[in-house]
């Protein structure tokens, strides 16, 4: 089904898990979020500000995303989806996550409690788990 082999840098994954833990410990159920960017070699995790002030959710600042889109387009990199943390839930998209995602996109979710990630493809309001590889720089 998915011919592309998805790779994530170990250093980025470990860093984003740590940031998710810190965020959740500072404010109960506070989520971090960002963009998944395909640079042609691996999927980059680009953290952005979470517009949602209450715990248990995330949203983006429109202007921040537009600026990133412009810069990434110049570099010929492609935004393929989003990532966010689940401070109190498993690394699986909730119904709300699926409903609010772009169709035909990818989602990486960080399970803060178990320090795990889940990688998903969202299409037609359905999430399919995707295999990935963790690589070192």
The name CATH uses for the topology is Cytidine Deaminase, domain 2
- Unreliable runs: none
Count of alpha/pi helices: 3
CATH homologous superfamily heading: Cytidine Deaminase, domain 2
Oligomer: single chain
Question: Widest sheet: strand order?
Answer: 3-2-4-5-6-7
**Would you report the number of β strands?**
8
Question: pLDDT average, as an integer?
Answer: 92
Order of helices and strands: EHEEHEHEEEE
Number of domains: 1
In a nutshell, what does this entry contain?
The chain has 137 residues and is of the alpha/beta class. The protein has a single domain, classed as Cytidine Deaminase, domain 2, CATH 3.40.140.10. The protein is 26% helix and 34% strand.
How are the elements arranged and paired?
Blueprint: E1 7-9, H1 10-26, E2 33-38, E3 43-48, H2 62-74, E4 78-86, H3 95-100, E5 105-111, E6 116-123, E7 126-129, E8 133-135
Parallel strand pairs: 1-8, 4-5
Antiparallel strand pairs: 2-3, 2-4, 5-6, 6-7
Which characteristics define this entry?
single chain; 137 residues; alpha/beta; Cytidine Deaminase, domain 2; two-stranded parallel sheet; 34% strand
Walkthrough of the structure:
The structure is a single chain. The chain has a single domain, classed as Cytidine Deaminase, domain 2 (3-Layer(aba) Sandwich). A hairpin with a 4-residue loop joins strand 5 (105-111) and strand 6 (116-123). It has 137 residues and is α/β, with parallel strands linked by helices. The strands form two sheets. The protein has a six-stranded mixed beta sheet with strand order 3-2-4-5-6-7. A two-stranded parallel ribbon has the order 1-8. It contains three helices and eight strands.
